[in-house]
Amino acid sequence: MTRTRSVVGRTIALHLVAIFVTAVVMPLALYLMLRRAADDLHENALRQQATELVPLIEREPDGNFQMHLPTRLEELYSPDYARYSYSVGDPDGRVLLSSFADGHSVTHAPPRMDRTVTFSGWYDGVHVFGISMPVEIAGRKLWIEVSQDLAHRDVLIDDIVTDFFTRVGWITVPILLLLLAIDVAIIRRAIKPIVAASALAERIGPERTDLRVPEDGLPREILPLVHAVNHAFDRLEEGFRIQREFTADAAHELRTPLAILRTQIDMIGDRELAGSLRADVENMSRLVNQLLEIAELETIEIVAGETADLVAVSTEIAAFIAPLALSRNKTVAVSGAPRPVLVPGHADMIGRAVRNLVENALAHTPAGTTVEIDVDPNGTLRVGDSGPGVPVADRDQIFRRFWRRNRRRPGSAGLGLAIVSQIAKMHGATIRVTDNPGGGAMFVLEFPAVIAPVREPQPEVMAAK
Amino acid sequence: MRLLLIEDNERFAALLKQGLAASGFTVDVLTTAAEATAALQTSRCDVVILDLGLPDADGLEVLTGMRDRSDATPVLILTARGSLKDRVSGLQSGADDYLVKPFALEELVARLQALLRRPGNLLGLALRLGNVTLDTIARQVFVGEAPIAFSAREVAVLEHLLRRSGRVVAKTLLESSLYGQSQEVGSNAVEVYVHRLRRHLAEIGASVQVHTVRGVGYMIAEGAA
């Protein structure tokens, strides 16, 4: 049997069982109680009737008994009215007096002389309730039976009891259903903060380790769970922080020894040796910088409302890299939109992405060629080179950390494109690689939206790098 | 020219002193912030090279102390801290330049020379690259020792390029400085002047080359024209 795991579902199921049980048991119990109360009422009424009759019985001089009913009572006991009947008998079973025309006793049975009893049953085709009690009249022990017809139009109590099931009893069902609805509403309300907390918990990940499940408004019963989860997140965040700091510290500590090495190399007289050593130090420095960059990326948050101009960013990066490119007999160029193309995002981060794309392109494009940065006014930035291109099979993996197609190629740790991918992700942008129409690879960084510029672009002054 | 190098790694400081001496700088080395602050208050130097991670205090305190005393000596921060936040806070504290370790000695020298050429600094009246010299007061260009006649606008373009030699000068910057922002400039006017300048430099056998970075600007560098 599959059991529903929803609290609301469980509540409804249990409630339905409870409703069913209550709807049957409660009216039944009420009915029995009413029945009993009605019987008591009948008994008292009949006892009173009987007690009222006793002083009206007189013993005649001939030894016979006579009932002297006043008019009021005579009507009550008349066969025409047919509500009450009585009979008086002696211990031998003889009927001495009777309201019935033929003079039989109410129960047609010998009396019980020991104690007062009540009875109910069908006598002479009528459902009666009666009392039989011993009395002593003029020194003789007699018994008196008084009964009333329960079906008589003037007997109200029994109608109430009989109607209870058919009319009143059913009211419990809607009341219980209403209670169920209220319960469901209460549970829903109690669960609401849990749903909200879950939505927030969804956002917690390696990029956002600072978020915690809010404990306000949560039911006290699940607070221990939330506490435990939040503590787990604290420990995870600490782990992330330690890892990040280790990366940053390690990279940072490497910079001074690298600077010493670099300065020493710069002072070597042998130009050929210096050149090859310098290339090695540059590769190491680049790796250190990229490790620091990755560590730094994870701490940067994009502030809402911040914008970056893709044209300005591309121009700045091209200007920054051009001297290096020219020294290798390659060059960079910016083309496309002449006006600012604004996208929501962190200009420095996007600049790093573009720089990594251009550095990657420069590493692969042959001497004498140009790395082209193209900015489309729709928020797409393309970096094309004239290198060998990226095989289709590698196009997804190329953005993974430390991935390299050719592990023997020196100078690349496979971090640059991973940084680009991470920056793109932070901006809700996509990065992919395709073929450059002129041969080579084309990296396409696509931003989800552009912002219409609010004012005429200012002539741009390049910042010193 | 006298440099004050504030760097706590003595091995690195010694190396740097040696390297800079080869480029004609006299270098004094101090290893703590306290020593540096004391020295800066009593004697003058042309440029300060400041490491941020000093043993007794943050290097930025030395810098803010200088600026609070209205000491305008150019300061170049030389540090292992390279994050965006670090660079911004360094420049906001009054640093004139910011260089992250490791770096090429050549780049440090170029940046120091650029700092010494800054307006307000009496040094650097002559801009030199390869065999080309530009006297910025007389507006006269020399190749080797020989004075060569250049048009005023060619000199203006050349001055911009030489002031930032080895780096790219934005085309927009050249446009606005050639004509002023109010005047309408033909879209290819800068291209025309750069083209003329390039041809002229080649004709006179200058050992410098003006590179075009399409869509961005121009860069002058040493090399056969």
CATH domain class name of the largest domain in chain B: Alpha Beta
Low-confidence region ranges of chain B: none
- Number of strand segments of chain A: 14
Mean pLDDT of chain B: 85
**What string gives the helices and strands of chain B in order?**
EHEHEHEHEHEEEEHEHHEE
CATH topology of the largest domain in chain A: Beta-Lactamase
**Top CATH class of the largest domain in chain A:** Alpha Beta
Helix content of chain A: 40-55%
Q: Report the sheet-strand fraction of chain B.
A: 15-25%
> Low-confidence parts of chain A, pLDDT < 50 over ≥5 residues?
none
Structural class of chain B: alpha/beta
- Calculate the mean pLDDT score of chain A and round it: 82
- Identify the CATH architecture of the largest domain in chain A: 2-Layer Sandwich
In DSSP terms (H or I, runs of 4 or more residues), the helix count of chain B works out at 8
Number of domains of chain A: 3
**Rg calc of chain B:** 20 Å
* Spatial strand arrangement across the major sheet of chain B: 2-1-3-4-5
Major sheet strand order of chain A: 4-3-7-6-5
> CATH superfamily of the largest domain in chain B, please?
Response regulator
Would you spell out the secondary-structure blueprint of this structure?
The complex is a heterodimer of chains A (465) and B (225).
Chain A: H1 7-53, E1 57-59, E2 65-67, H2 71-77, E3 84-89, E4 95-98, E5 117-123, E6 126-137, E7 140-149, H3 157-168, H4 172-202, H5 223-266, H6 271-297, E8 307-309, H7 310-327, E9 331-336, E10 342-344, H8 347-364, E11 370-376, E12 380-384, H9 416-426, E13 430-435, E14 441-446
Parallel strand pairs in A: 9-11
Antiparallel strand pairs in A: 1-2, 3-4, 3-7, 5-6, 6-7, 8-10, 11-12, 12-14, 13-14
Chain B: E1 2-6, H1 10-22, E2 26-30, H2 33-42, E3 47-50, H3 59-68, E4 75-79, H4 84-92, E5 97-100, H5 105-117, E6 126-129, E7 132-135, E8 140-143, E9 146-148, H6 152-163, E10 168-170, H7 171-179, H8 189-203, E11 208-213, E12 217-222
Parallel strand pairs in B: 1-2, 1-3, 3-4, 4-5
Antiparallel strand pairs in B: 6-7, 7-8, 8-9, 10-12, 11-12
